[in-house]
């Protein structure tokens, strides 16, 4: 009798122990999952967001980390990767507004003056995506040296991107070929530079450019200047 009772107590203890372990497993599993059953991602550093494997649309906190990284680092590889990530995210209208509100437009704009050609190109890509938002156009400040990017000796990749920037702004301001919004020609603003006679002359001169793609882009812009 005593032996049978002892075996019963041992079995009961094992069952209770197994039940407790299962409860702990379920609790731990739930903590690792979000409300919708999706596994939560660990908090990521700004550099993690630029490694090419993160393809989700960034939220405001992540964009802020990215802009801080872009402003604080001097590593050209990190700068280029950050600009690529930022440019991809600037293709979404909600992020165009967030980047503006976080003060990101001048941070990106400053990289246009970088000596590294690839960084200059990626900065223009990001600005092109940001520039399709009319409110962002007002915030873009680029100095008189910006017009030098429209010179014929500038690399094709850069020329195509600055021409696209001009085209994006015109597309936003004009409806059916007519000026829908009167741009503010504040000195130092992008409008002041792009709608000035010097810029118009530079763009017209590109009609004779050696590259067919540049010529084609200029022809599409010519009626608008």
Automatic annotation (TrEMBL):
Keywords: Endoplasmic reticulum, Growth regulation, Membrane, Mitochondrion, Mitochondrion outer membrane, Phosphoprotein, Transmembrane, Transmembrane helix. It comes from the Eukaryota. The keyword Membrane applies. The chain crosses the membrane at residues 6-25. It is a single-pass membrane protein. Residues 58-142 form the Armadillo repeat-containing domain. One of its GO terms (cellular component) is endoplasmic reticulum membrane. Pfam families: Arm_2. Coiled coil: none annotated. Its main location: endoplasmic reticulum. It is found in: Endoplasmic reticulum membrane; Mitochondrion outer membrane. May play a role in cell survival and cell growth. May suppress the transcriptional activity of p53/TP53. PANTHER family: ARMADILLO REPEAT CONTAINING PROTEIN (PTHR15712), ARMADILLO REPEAT-CONTAINING PROTEIN 10 (PTHR15712:SF19). Interacts with the DNA-binding domain of p53/TP53. This is Armadillo repeat-containing protein 10. It comes from Callithrix jacchus (White-tufted-ear marmoset). The lineage of its organism: Eukaryota, Metazoa, Chordata, Craniata, Vertebrata.
């Amino acid at each position: 009798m005593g032996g049978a009772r002892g075996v019963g107590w041992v079995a009961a203890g094992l069952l209770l122990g197994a039940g407790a372990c299962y409860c702990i497993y379920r609790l731990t599993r739930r903590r690792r999952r979000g409300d919708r059953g999706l596994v939560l991602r660990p908090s990521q550093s700004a550099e993690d967001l630029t490694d090419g494997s993160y393809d989700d649309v960034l939220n405001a906190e992540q964009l802020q980390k990215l802009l801080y990284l872009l402003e604080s680092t001097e590593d050209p590889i990190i700068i280029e990767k950050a600009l690529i990530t930022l440019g991809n995210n600037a293709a979404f209208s909600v992020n165009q507004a967030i980047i503006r509100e976080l003060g990101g437009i001048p941070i990106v704009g400053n990289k246009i003056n970088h000596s590294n050609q690839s960084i200059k190109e990626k900065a223009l890509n990001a600005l092109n995506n940001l520039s399709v938002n009319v409110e962002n156009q007002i915030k873009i400040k680029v100095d008189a040296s910006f017009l030098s990017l429209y010179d014929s000796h500038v690399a094709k990749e850069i020329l195509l991107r600055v021409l696209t920037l001009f085209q994006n702004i015109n597309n936003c301001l004009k409806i059916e070929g007519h000026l829908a919004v009167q741009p503010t020609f504040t000195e130092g603003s992008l409008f002041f530079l792009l709608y000035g006679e010097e810029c118009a002359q530079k763009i017209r001169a590109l009609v004779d450019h050696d590259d067919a793609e540049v010529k084609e882009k200029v022809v599409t812009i010519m009626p608008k200047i």
